[in-house]
Each structure stands twice: as structure tokens, then as C-alpha cells.
Amino acid sequence: MNIHHLELFYYVAKHHGVSAAARHIPYGIQQPAISAQVLQLESSLGVTLFHRRPFQLTREGESLFQHIEPFFSGLPELRSRIASGGDECLRIAAPELIQREYLPALLGRLQNKRRRFRFTLVEARQDQIEKLLNDQEVDIGLAVQTSKPSPGLHCTPINKFHLTLLAPEKLGIKKASELFALERITVPLITLSGSDTVRRIFLDELRERRVEWLPSLELGSLDLVARYAAQGFGVGLSVELVRVRKPKGIIELPLEGFPPVVFSVFHRIRPSPLAELFIEESLALAGELFGPSA
After folding, report:
1. Dihedral, CA of residue 36, residue 37, residue 41 and residue 47, to nearest 10
2. For a FRET experiment, which of 37, 113, 158, 268 has its CA 20 to 30 Å from that of 218?
3. CATH number at residue 125
4. pLDDT value of residue 242
């Protein structure tokens, strides 16, 4: 078997078609050339590896792909390690909030354990992380999990947080249900920015309950949300963090019945040793910062 033919078949199988493979192969090659060389591979094996329309691997094609996938999928990491003179590089994707609030401490732990550890970092949500992982553009991702990961990927839950409201004590509100029972909620709602997943989960649940309450203030961190609420500027949306002290002047109102926020690491089914260390340290750090998952 020609190793180049196997590489082309790997990209065709991974991206579900010749045209998609041509867009992802990291060197210039046209669709007709890919088709011709994969046909040569099929001829040498005496089998059909995939059905063209619609695309589907045959039993023989699936068997071949499972055999060659670990080798070809590991080449980008190997190339990076060799090119960097033995440094261990991890390509990470995470939303801005996690980059700011969580990753610095985690990356510091990894540097303490692996002297030659390096990393790259891009901003992404779960759906974007999954695409980056499938395209082999990142090695691992951290994000709030909103759905089951796509086939071929896996996620490791790091912690589960429950939504809560932070109300100024002077409002005299003891339960979140008191707010939702009002015909019209006039107190301002303080949340993170419009792209934040915690905010989206909360607003989606409000719509399900037919409660109208739109954010008035959008801030850059949960700490700011708590501080603005403590100053009496409105009610803040946050999550229950066992070991994080809240400012004086606010009362925490648990949002009973609202979906929890699951913070997960997204990775391939067979993560690299460095990715496995990242997962291990993520779990350890989350336990130290936030306490055990509820």
C-alpha cells in the first residue's frame, strides 16, 4: 500500500468526502488527483472503501480508517514537538471568561510540572471547539457544556455549578420566586456579556417560564456582577461558588429548577499524554477553587 494514498484516504474518511478533504489537506492537491489516487488504493486492495453519494464508509473502509487514524491524527502534534526542539506544546481553545478567570492558574500548574511546556490559545465556545478539534487545529478545549459532544470527541466534566441571583439586601427579597411572581420586574438585571453561556441558559429558562426580564447591565466578570449588585445597581446573575466570598450587602437567591452549568474539558477520545495531564490538573484546580461539584 502506498503511504501517500493512505494519507489521502484518511482525509477523505475524516471529512466525509473528496471535496471536503481537499479543503483540509495541509498542502495543495486538487479533487481529481485525490479521487484518482484513492481509486488506485481501492484497486490495489480489491475493495471499495466508501460509497460516494451519499458518503459512507464501507465495512472495509471503516476498518482501514480505524487502523490508520491514530498515526495520521498524531502527526500535527509530532511535527510541533520536533519543530520546537522537544518542547511540549498544547493548543487550547476556551471562551474569554475562562481564559481570564481560570486558565492562568491552570497553565501555571502545568508549567511547574513540565519545564518545557508551551501553549497556544484561541477563543471559542463549545461548537467552535468541536470544529477545531475535528479539524486538528487545537488539542483541547475548555467551555461550558451545552450539548453532548459530536461523534469522535469526548468531554470530561470538571465541575457543575448552579445558577443563583445576587440581590441587594435592601430590596428585601428572600427568594428568587418572589421576583418571578411579579407582573413586571422593574429591578435591573446584571449579567455577563451577550455571548456568555451562563446568561443564555438563564434567559432561555426565563422564556420557558414566560418571564420577561432583559439584562440592563452587561459586565466583564462575575466579580464585577457581584460588586455592582452589592452597590444596589440591580440583581446580578451568577453561579454558586462554594469557596468564593461574596461582597457584603448582597443576599444569594438560588435558582431552583434552573439547568446547572456544566464546565467541561473537550478532547479527542484518545488524548495525548500532555492533554491527559491538562485534564488531571483541571480537575484538581477546580476542586481547590470551587469545592466539590454539587
Report:
1. -20
2. 158
3. 3.40.190.10
4. 61
